[in-house]
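Both lines are quoted verbatim for reference:

——
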Amino acid sequence: MKGYRFPREIVAYAVWAYHRFALSTADVEDLLAERGVIVSRETVRKWVNRFGHHFASCIKRDRPDVRGKWHLEEVVAIRGKKHWLWRAIDADGDMLDILVQPRRNARAARRFLKGLVGRFGAPRVIVTDKLRSYVKPVRELAPGTDHRADKGLNNRIEGSHRTTRKREKRNRPIDAADQAVGAQFHGSSSSRRLIL
């Protein structure tokens, strides 16, 4: 990569490890040092900020058709205030999309669902918690889709919040919406296809 001291494979590995395992930049620095790569945690932070979104967009672009079952869920604290991290995953647990909004109402649900349906088409099934804000947007934007609203059915996406919760517990609060969106990279990084 032009203008960078390290090859793209090292940068890609550092960004992937940071998001995939909810590591701190110091943890990634130690991980790279064990492999003989001496890099500062500030450099790792810059790589994450510079390339994290790019990796996520490449993975989203190359994603196969996902019209089966979607799970939708939300909630995150940013700078101590509650925001809604609207996330959708498919039946395989791969992240479809993510959106951070300050409100949790039908308008916010509609905005999120409109982007999903526009990008992927209507799914066969949508599983949500019992938030009533989903009912009207699902009926309008995805007619014919089976909407299953039950807290117990949505365990798949509850598990996908693990990285966000780990980060909060390690006293690393989310300071901005784009850090919350970084979780999108984590959710779709299990394939390890990192394309620059």
About this structure: The radius of gyration is 18 Å. Residues 41-61 form the longest helix (21 residues).
